[in-house]
Design brief:
The protein is 38% helix and 13% strand. It is α/β, with parallel strands linked by helices. It has one domain (3-323): 3-Layer(aba) Sandwich (Rossmann fold). Strands 1-9-8-7-6-4-5-3-2 form a nine-stranded mixed β-sheet, sandwiched between helices. The radius of gyration is 18 Å and the shape is globular.
Length: 330
């Protein structure tokens, strides 16, 4: 499975024609990608089938995740911690008049700016924008709408310093859901939309309506469906998963900025990305859906070791430069 789909509409002209991006995805996964998928299937996925979701103390999971994220940053990367625990990550030549607000993944229950420093640094280098890694509150201690409210508050603060068309919002996995929720909240609050949005392997349908069937047909080497479901419920807390701010796939999307979605075709969450793309297109929006063959959940995390991760991050930069400032008419 390999494709990159784009969609339309901006007046009488398609946004796709206006952007004119040429994207060629690899036809087959690299040797490194195949080895990674096999390693994950034999280790993380196997362990996930034995250890029940929620049985391991979250403190241990969070500390382990943070430890993995303590890798050296690319040469020349600037890093600054705010009083709130957020991290500013900027490549050597990052612009000062724009910003990318990044919402990290981790199933809403783990992850932090520390775990995503490396990825943020590479995205900063690719886009030419400094990245603000938000230290949003985690579930289950802080269930919905805590993280969503943190994201909206951060966006409001950025509007005080940057032109909206120079702001990009994005995130991976659970951060992809928070990105979609943020866009819906921005529309609801009638705030200016950002110039673009990116979603990397987004976890969008917290009910997991398609996870089991998709995983049965093609076993995800990384994410067990039952773990994703547990994370979604932990985040929702007492709120129904069908709440309008949680059900980001069906929320009204008119006026959203151009969206880039990148996902691996091994993921049980692939259907979430496909449904989001269809939803955006029905609303008349522009969406570039890139399905990368043989790639695991948030494969970008494995840059610079994975050729596809490097290529995908490069595509993020090209997308942001091409579409930032072009929003679709409501």
């Amino acid at each position: 499975m390999i494709y990159s789909e784009r969609s339309h509409v901006k007046g009488d002209e398609t946004v796709g024609e206006a952007i004119a991006m040429a994207v060629e995805l690899p036809a087959t996964p690299s040797v490194a990608s195949r080895l990674l998928a096999r390693l994950m299937a034999a280790s993380l996925r196997t362990l996930g089938g034995v250890v029940k979701p929620g049985s391991t103390p979250l403190r241990i999971v969070r500390e382990a995740f943070d430890a993995i994220g303590r890798t050296p940053l690319p040469l020349g990367t600037k890093i600054k911690k705010t009083e709130d625990g957020d991290l500013w990550i900027a490549a050597k030549d990052a612009a000062e008049d724009g910003v990318l607000l990044y919402l990290h993944g981790g199933g809403f229950v783990c992850g932090s700016p520390r775990t995503h420093r490396q990825l943020a640094a590479r995205i900063s280098a690719s886009t030419g924008l400094p990245v603000l890694l938000l230290d949003y509150r985690l579930a289950p201690e802080h269930p919905f709408p805590a993280a969503a409210e943190d994201a909206l508050a951060a966006y409001r603060r950025l509007l005080g310093s940057y032109a909206p068309e120079r702001i990009v919002v994005g995130g991976d996995s659970a951060g992809g859901h928070l990105t979609a929720c943020l866009l819906a909240d921005i529309a609801r609050e009638r705030l200016p939309m950002p110039g673009a949005a990116i979603m990397l392997s987004p976890f969008l349908d917290l009910t997991g309506s398609e996870l089991a069937d998709r995983d049965a047909a093609f076993r995800d080497p990384f994410v067990p469906p039952e773990y994703a479901l547990w994370c979604g419920k932990a985040y929702a807390g007492p709120t129904l998963l069908t709440h309008h701010r949680l059900d980001v796939l069906t929320v009204r999307k008119h006026g959203w900025p151009p969206v880039l979605i990148q996902v691996g075709d091994t993921e049980c969450l692939l259907g979430d990305s496909e449904r989001m793309a269809r939803s955006l297109r029905r609303a008349g929006g522009y969406c570039d859906l890139q399905v990368w063959p043989g790639q695991v959940h948030v494969f970008h995390w494995f840059a610079p070791l994975l050729p596809e991760a490097n290529a995908a991050i490069k595509q993020i930069g090209e997308f942001v430069r091409a579409v930032s400032g072009q929003t679709v008419a409501a």
